[in-house]
From TrEMBL:
InterPro entries: MetalloPept_cat_dom_sf (IPR024079), MtfA_fam (IPR010384), MtfA_N (IPR042252). The keyword Repressor does not apply. GO terms for cellular component: cytosol. The chain crosses the membrane at residues 7-26, 32-50. Keywords: Membrane, Transmembrane, Transmembrane helix. This is Peptidase. GO terms for molecular function: aminopeptidase activity; metallopeptidase activity. PANTHER family: MTFA PEPTIDASE, PROTEIN MTFA. The keyword Transmembrane helix applies. It comes from the Bacteria.
């Protein structure tokens, strides 16, 4: 049954291919060349049709079910989840289960990743995208969890300066790397405006439009202008040491978005006090503003 949808393409290809010698004999080179072009176009169209058809029919993996113990563990270790109301907790659990089914989580040095590690990674993703009407995490296919920090070339190094990385382009374009100690610390200390998991998934949100430039997707032109203005002012204040936003947010527009998103997700009340315009913009963007 699956192959029947491709039968017309196969017939068209064989007929076109078989007609080339006949046309070449009776009609000449030009006519045969035209038919050859038609054959090539047909092959391209058939491959495109196959790609789209296969993608549509690919069954989605069943979401990972969280046990009562998992949910109890989350209440003790994921502060964002603990603060949610009953209905939102169910949505959060559902999205964590979907993420764990859809994205491969590889814990380096372990035959299988620890369940807690998977929940930390999935919770980071859900928190970063929380409030948005979409949460498919782009083309992310795998999250590598390293036992230590690492260097810029992705080699393990306890003294490495990198604890999280979203790849943009190249062979690892669909891969994220996180340091397990930094990932755990981000959730253990939940009021320091820093969480490497949320930070890196904020980069992934920024990457949704094809660029990691500090301007997230789904902003209208007017909102982009407002956001760029808020970002420039806030970055100037960071550089002048007159801001509560962590200093790393002043290094580039891309890092600013990830840093301030983490700040907003972890300490929204503090951001509201320290920078109300920035807070209100993010509150609206993440659909958290109250009418």
């Amino acid at each position: 049954m699956k192959n029947k949808s491709f039968l017309p393409w196969i017939i068209l290809f064989l007929i076109s291919l078989g007609s080339i010698p006949i046309i070449l004999h009776y009609k000449g080179f030009t006519s045969a060349k035209i038919v050859g072009v038609i054959v090539v176009v047909s092959i391209i169209a058939a491959l495109w049709f196959w790609r789209i058809n296969t993608r549509k029919k690919s069954p989605r993996k069943a979401k990972v079910s969280l046990s009562v113990n998992d949910k109890h563990w989350m209440r003790g270790h994921i502060s964002f989840y603990k603060r949610l109301n009953k209905e939102d907790k169910i949505i959060f659990e559902d999205r964590v289960g979907i993420f764990m089914a859809d994205v491969t989580i590889t814990e380096i040095g372990q035959e299988r990743p620890e369940k807690e590690t998977c929940i930390y990674v999935a919770s980071s993703a859900v928190i970063a995208f929380w409030g948005l009407p979409y949460y498919n995490y782009g083309n992310l296919r795998e999250v590598l969890v390293y036992p230590t920090n690492f260097d810029m070339d992705n080699s393990l190094n306890k003294r490495g300066i990198v604890n999280g990385k979203v790849h943009h382009g190249g062979l690892m374009n669909n891969t994220m790397i996180l340091s397990l100690p930094a990932l755990e610390t981000g959730f253990q200390i939940d009021n320091d405006k820093q969480n490497v998991g949320i930070h890196e998934f904020s980069h992934l949100l920024d990457k949704s439009d094809g660029k990691i430039d500090g301007i997230p997707e789904y902003l209208g032109e007017e909102d982009k202008k407002i956001w760029v203005g808020l970002m420039k002012e806030a970055m100037d204040n960071i550089k002048a040491n007159e801001s509560s936003i962590p200093a790393y947010g002043g290094t580039s527009e891309a890092e600013f978005f990830a840093v301030v998103t983490t700040y907003y997700k972890e300490c929204p009340s503090l951001l509201k006090i320290k920078n109300r315009p920035l807070f209100e913009f993010l509150d609206e963007y993440f659909n958290q503003e109250k009418g």
